[in-house]
Amino acid sequence: MAKFKTGIDTSRNKDEIREIEIEVDFTPNALASILYRQGNTHILCCVTKEARLPGWFPRDATKGWVHAEYSLLPGSTDSRFRRERRGAKGRTQEIERLIARSLRGAIDLEALGPVALTVDCDVLNADGGTRCASITAANIALRLAVRRLIANGECLPIDLRPTKEDRDGGWSAPKLSEIEAKNHENKVIPNDLSAISVGLIEGEVYLDLDYVLDSNADVDMNVVGTSDGNFVEIQGTGEESTFTYDELQSLISMARTGLSQLAEMQVAVLDDVV
Fold first, then answer.
1. What percent of the chain is predicted at pLDDT more than 90?
2. How many Å apart are CA 24 and CA 27, to the nearest integer?
3. Which of the residues 21, 70, 144, 157 has an alpha carbon 20 to 30 A from that of 126?
4. How far apart, in whole angstroms, are the C-alpha atoms of residue 72 and residue 60?
5. What domains appear along the chain, each with residue ranges and CATH number?
6. With helix as H, strand as E and coil as C, how does 160-213 read?
7. pTM exceeds 0.70, yes or no
8. 10 Å Cβ neighbour count for 130?
9. Are 99 and 225 in contact, with CB atoms under 8 Å apart?
């Protein structure tokens, strides 16, 4: 059975991403934060350094950890979204896991060192593609957080990390040169991470689905990838419809176009931010 069509009215081209606006350090208390707007989907993303690694890590761990949480705020949808006071469940839990494993797929946890970071993605306004926008926003905030940890001497190359004896002896962190700091940042996060939605609507492929496009899609797909062209995850489904191998290829090709644009955007956004 075909889906009921509500009528698509969009001023964007089919291969055009919604307008993106980014405000860095929106919340000054976080290690790094950004307010990320992709069309009318707005995400507040904050990164916090935890006091210690998770309890299940070995005491002498040399690698770090990245955890993510996601939530729709009550006023983010047209009808109030009730707070999940007893913990994430269902869709929220699925998205949290997607964000976290995507970030951990793009970061070198050994290069990060024994540091635990929590990335919070709160949806202030939802107009489709919230999980994809959250992943892109999370990567920008995470890179900025890592940059600041390196500057503070809290994220160092393995050969410069202190031993227990060093710490007991009043060790102080070495100051990396600008080139050394940049090289280590790129060691920790070798490639930027982005995510984009694509959909098949009446035989046409659309990029970056807002709510109206998503509601009309016969097939929709979320694609997570890195700036070197590799994929982290592909989620796709036919909405009361099927799709051919050629259509699958077209969807992935369109997604790659979007991921490339998002990767270029991220480099430009953080070029001079410290």
1. 81
2. 8
3. 144
4. 37
5. 20-269 (3.30.230.70)
6. HCCCHHHHHCCCCCCCCCHHHHHHHHHHHCCCCEEEEEEEEECCEEEECCCHHH
7. yes
8. 23
9. no
Distance CA 107, CA 3 (A): 40
**N- to C-terminal Cα separation, the chain:** 53
Burial class (CB in 10 A: 0-12, 13-18, 19+), 245: exposed
Note the pLDDT tens digit of each residue in 60-84.
899 999 999 999 989 898 888 888 7
DSSP string, 104-159: HHHS-HHHH-S-EEEEEEEEEE-SS-HHHHHHHHHHHHHHHHHHHHHHTTSS--GG
* Band of residue 176 on the pLDDT scale cut at 50, 70, 90: very high
* Phi, psi dihedrals of residue 52, rounded to the nearest 5°: -155, 165
